[in-house]
Specification:
The protein is mainly α. The protein is built from 8 helices and 2 strands; from the N terminus they run αααββααααα. α1 runs antiparallel to α2, α1 packs across α4 and α4 crosses α6. It holds the Pfam family BPD_transp_1.
């Protein structure tokens, strides 16, 4: 296993770089859009809440791989930008990021909704009594408290997304598993390659988990 890694480490590093970039962009987009869908879900307007509920139901009720293929083939007419960033081909990776972000949005929306509803309603009433609008109360009072409550769940979504990006290999995107397949083909020795990939995924998630724990502790210290 060590010999394979030393001889083909550039493939694993290149794939890891793509995996991290795609995961980071996906989680950022999913968090922003998830916040929007969560607010629509809590809206007093039935049309808005109905749309958000339908979106969440459809996305959570269908496999991610199916969503990836639907986005890729349905939006084939879009002139995706050419070129690459940090070795990632934009024309291939943009549909993947879109599909993964749509999937992440549905799960993040439910996490954020639960965090908002966990904040005592008295906080909203106090903000309104001070002259704030509902929008100001949500942005300045409710959401900051909700974020602290849902931070572990958002971190879990990032961890999950790092692993789920492995499906983009089916569209020819050079992520970790795609490059793992190249090494397997070159060496005819699949098991050590999968061990190496598993260790890389595990290392990424451990580092991410430690970073999130540190960030959460600092937020708790700021409360004191």
């Amino acid at each position: 296993m060590t010999e394979i890694f030393l001889n083909y480490y550039q493939y694993f590093l290149r794939g890891t770089q793509t995996t991290v970039i795609v995961s980071l962009i996906t989680v950022l987009l999913g968090t922003v859009l998830g916040c929007l869908i969560a607010l629509l879900r809590l809206s007093r307007f039935r049309l808005c809440s109905g749309f958000a509920k339908l979106y969440i139901t459809v996305i959570r009720g269908t496999p991610l791989l199916v969503q990836l293929y639907i986005v890729y083939y349905q939006l084939h007419f879009i002139p995706w930008p050419e070129g690459s960033i940090l070795g990632v081909e934009l024309a291939r990776v943009m549909p993947c990021i879109l599909a993964l972000s749509m999937n992440s949005t549905a799960y993040v929306a439910e996490v954020i909704r639960s965090g908002i509803q966990a904040v005592d309603f008295g906080q909203t009433e106090a903000a309104l009594s001070c002259g704030m609008t509902r929008t100001q109360a949500m942005v300045n009072i409710i959401l900051p408290q909700a974020v602290k409550n849902i931070l572990p769940a958002l971190g879990n979504e990032f961890v999950t997304m790092i692993k789920e990006t492995s499906i983009i290999q089916y569209l020819g995107v050079g992520d970790l598993m795609y490059n793992n397949g190249i090494v397997v083909t070159a060496t005819y020795n699949p098991l050590p390659c999968y061990y190496i990939s598993a260790i890389i995924y595990l290392t990424l998630n451990i580092v991410l988990g430690k970073g999130l724990d540190l960030f959460e502790r600092r937020m708790k210290c700021s409360d004191r």
